[in-house]
Amino acid sequence: xxQRLSPDIFRIPVEEIKxxxxxxxxxxxxxxxxxxxxxxxxxxxxxxxxxxxxVCGIDEAIAIIKRCAHNPENLTIKALYDGDTVKPWExxxxxxxxxxxxxxxxxxxxxxxxRQTKIATNVKNVVVAANGKPMVFFPSRFDYFAxxxxxxxxxxxxxxxxxxxxxxxxxxxAPAMGTIPHSLIATYGGDTILATKAFDQHIDPNVNxxxxxxxNNDCVATALEVxxxxxxxxxxxxxxxxxxxxxxxxxxxxxxxKPTGVCAQLVFNVRQALDQAxxxxxxxxxxxxxxxxxIKDFEAAKVPVDIYAVGSSLFNDNINFTxxxxxxxxxxxxxxxxxxxxxxxxIQA
Length: 349
Known about the structure:
Blueprint: H1 14-19, H2 25-36, E1 42-48, E2 53-54, H3 58-68, E3 76-79, E4 85-86, E5 93-98, H4 99-102, H5 106-129, E6 135-137, H6 148-158, E7 162-163, H7 182-187, H8 192-202, E8 209-212, H9 219-230, E9 234-239, H10 264-276, E10 283-286, H11 292-300, E11 307-310, E12 322-328, E13 331-332, E14 347-348
Parallel strand pairs: 6-7, 6-11, 8-9, 9-10, 10-11
Antiparallel strand pairs: 1-5, 1-12, 2-4, 3-5, 3-14, 12-13
């Protein structure tokens, strides 16, 4: 049976939201007019979006309504679950009650639904493209820090195998994972082995040892050097070659493909070198500009990648939610083109 997150788990600035600090002003004016005019019809608000998507943000939207509405006990919320697949125009939630009690929340709950559904959908598309291979969520450095909690939860709903910050894993009790950054290698004079040894010496042994091997733009040589130094302790290597560089091992093969960055030929070269040296247990993680299309190309070519680390492309595009009143005092009442569309999949929250 599907479960919802408790409204109490979310870090919500309740008083600021209740005061309207994050609300479009016309929603606040609507509330004030209804209260001053003592006008309190019972309405049904219907919420939808316009594409095929993996919906997320439902639980946070419910939390916002239950914790920030006026008289929330008088409202009836019906909704899908985070992770449900939805079609264009399908209702994902309805709210019934006095609009004066929740008009000020529309901006906030629609924003949660829009952002989290975008990320969950993008992650799900990458996970499908990766054919069951683990995909880790690494884009947090590309956006505002305060979004990390909900972003990481949306990534989890989309099927991500891991996240990079403690905040990303907060709502689903997941540890942050990561490899070695280029900056650590730089502090050891550009010596990948010294940096990896320091990581191995000082980091919990339960953390997988994943060495970054592109610092000197010779991934084959560096991967082999790391593997010979760490042997069975080395769980994986990661390649993150800049898109404006051609790795040393790729130079002899240039001619009919884009040779820069983490290209397919580079991955084949590293896998072959590790296998021939007796290190077939070492996994290969790739990062740097990966998206759905690039992963599909890699999988179609059977490039021997074990793990995809995906970043900024997971923030691409928008999925916009809309809320409309479709019933007033039990009777149909809506703007043209926005009539009530019942959805038997909605469950009372």
